[in-house]
Amino acid sequence: MPLFAYRGRGARGELVTGTIEAADQGAVADQLFTTGVTPVDITQTQALSDSGEPGWLTKLFEPRVTLVDIMLFSRQMYTLLKAGVPILRSLAGLQESATNPTLRHVIAELRISLDAGRELSAAMRQHPQVFSGFYVSVVRVGEATGQLDEAFNRLFGYLEFEREVRERIKTALRYPTIVILVISAAIAIVNFAVIPAFAKIFESSKVPLPLVTRILVGISDFFLAFWPLAVGAILAAVIGFLAYTRTENGRYNWDRVKLRIPVAGAIIFKSTLARFARAFAIAARAGVPIVQGLTVVASVVDNTFVARRVEQMREGVERGESVLRAAVTTGVFTPVVVQMIAVGEETGELDDLLNEIADMYEREVDYEIKNLAANIEPIITIVLGILVLILALGVFLPIWDLGRVMLKR
Predict the structure, then answer these.
(1) pLDDT computed for residue 52 by the predictor
(2) What is the pTM assigned to this prediction?
């Protein structure tokens, strides 16, 4: 069916815009009247392909809904619902004030689904690219328990932690990334400009070249002669790696390797454990059954290797094992996590102790991220020193030999 863009006025006279998929303009008007919106303008958009989906060009330039957008949406929903504003009025206000057109379109579709009698969680499930499975599950539990506002509040806290971790990692990696790029540019200049110039001088003087110099000249000659092939090989390797990591086994193997990377691996592992504990605590406190909670937690830990261990843990609980025994069997959780799970399961305060685990690992992640640059700097300094030494020996040793020859003459 075609897609129609509309403008109308709500019950309070506010401007309402959005898109609706319908057979014709009359069907659009009927849907709007049933939702309390008086249509002002209805036009068919050309952003549809023959299959009824948005065209590829529209999708290409469509702004993405970011983590910050969802975080602010959660916080605003919590504030409005806590103040007693009906959910439809809350969504109407957020749709009008949303600055991201994609999010505005999603909110409009949520309103239409709610008017059609669906639950909010069911409507959100239709937009998996915006709302994760974990997000939808917490909202569904909030609807079932009558604590939808608290569900949005917990989701806001969880998303805020996610954003802080990502921003800290970006900040910590900024300096090492700049240094690596500068080193790479310097090596390229030396290979393509400096060494070829010295090679001509050495060749004309007919001075025997040291091994280091011959290696550098050989590498430079190779890149000068076959640089398109080298660039193509690098691009092919990158594309092949990305394609491999998009497969199920490739993603699993890469996520397992990431946990073993020096310096960064410990941060990734601890942040994954913090994400697991925080998500599990939110699900447990919201009243999600343990089996269902582990299912949704496995989808948000953002590491396939750990996710499969969480699924293994869920299967153990389904077989009748305790949470503690299932966690020990996976072999991925640290003794601290296992001990806290044991105490929480015994005292019935599993959610509180899981929150303490999350807080502890979040502090450790914060500390290690702050010291990440300090830990990487010695490695970068050593590598840079070795490169400078090799280049210096390769260039200056022949110059010294050339000077000796000239003195003998």
Answers:
(1) 45
(2) 0.65
